[in-house]
Amino acid sequence: MKNVPLDNFRQLKTILLGILFILQATLAMAQSCPRITSPANGSLEVPVGSTITWPPVPGIIGYLISLGTTPGGGDILNRRSAGLTNSYTPEVGLPENTTIYVTISLFLFNGELTICPSEEFTTEDVITPPSCTSLIMPLNNEGNVSVKTEIQWAYADTATGYRLSIGTSAGAADLVDNLDVGNVLTFNPPGDLPQDSPVYVTITPYNENGDGDSCDEESFTTGNAVIDCNAYFDPVSGEIVPRRPESNLPSQIGLCKNEIPTLISSDDIADGFRWFKINDDGTESLLSSTSEVFLSEIGAYRYEAYNFVEQGGETFECSISKDFNVVLSEIAQIISVSTSQEADGREIQMEVSGIGDYEYALDNIEGPYQNSGTFYRVDEGPHTVYVNDRNGCGIAQRIIERELTPDDFPKFFTPNGDGINDFWQYIAPSDSNEIQLTYIQVFDRYGVLLTQITPNSKGWDGTYNGQPLPSSSYWFKARDNLNNEIQGYFALKR
Length: 494
Prior knowledge:
1 helix
């Protein structure tokens, strides 16, 4: 190997240190808090339908956005996931003539949540009625619409509510008559719409200044119901047979911070499955067509499970659909378990840390679980405590050894020199090997300290200053390695 000049080594070292500095600076910048760019901080007269945007932040796994009327508040929107999209458009607009505080939070890959400082802007004072809106599902003039359809419409700028009329002929309201549905953009009719029939819909936005002016009536046509996916009675088995799968998928699932991506499995019994990511614009992206899916981002998702049903020589799907949210979570870290002896029994208190949603059980990993980490009126003896993350990231557990009690000490001894029971001493119980005493003190009934003995000695021989003490009751105080103190009494017999 040729000798490399010392100057070359110094140059190489300088280059490597420079690269390291750039990487550290890049990482720090990637996780710095963004400032909202639209509307800019301190803006006035901001339109109530504005989209809030901020610069993208590399090196994170998602954003949360909160909107409130106080700094850091969430009374308008509380920690809504924006996924990895660096913008948010309020679905039904913002309140008028109001100072809005925007708080962006960053989910980092190490599981930490960075809450950025709030910024603010003030919305316009709306002085005119809203404009009209239009159907987005079903679309105007659409045909073969399901009789179970949900009606959706677009946000009408400056609207604070909507009235809805639905009829089976033009200008009619025989199904829904000028119903005030509030500040929402969807409506589920109270029953199935008529089959193979035109349906007429009029949506009237309003605000404090009045109604949208002469909004057009729109219409669509329903189709025939080709399959009944409801459960049916089987006369052969005498049982109710479901056509749709039954699902126990939770409404919230944890993205375990030490297991990204996290594999999520459905244990539903079905012929097929679909998993979708719900994008910020309302569209969906198919992630998996099996019973399992790998998830690596927080946000909103939808799950489908379906069975095939044969009818009239054709095959149909009877499905169930569930929306769920993915949040960052983790298995609990048990910091401490403390016990105390109360009048009605032993009390156990647990302290845990972590970003999960936790529940607690005693002695049975299957539960029942409770919300609190404190257990009351617990029997003596060893126990096991369990902490379950409701988001599915695992169960932590810890064994609690049986504590020392006065019953663990001899009730009497007979120091008469016959070699039997001549010394009074603690003997550790067989079911609590972890308990170790640090000292034992013996007192007479007047509180005079007679002796202090160690657990590895023979014990007390019933004397004080070399003189035998009379038959009587004596008191003791003992302290164990868990800093628990026990008091009790025993008898000296001669």
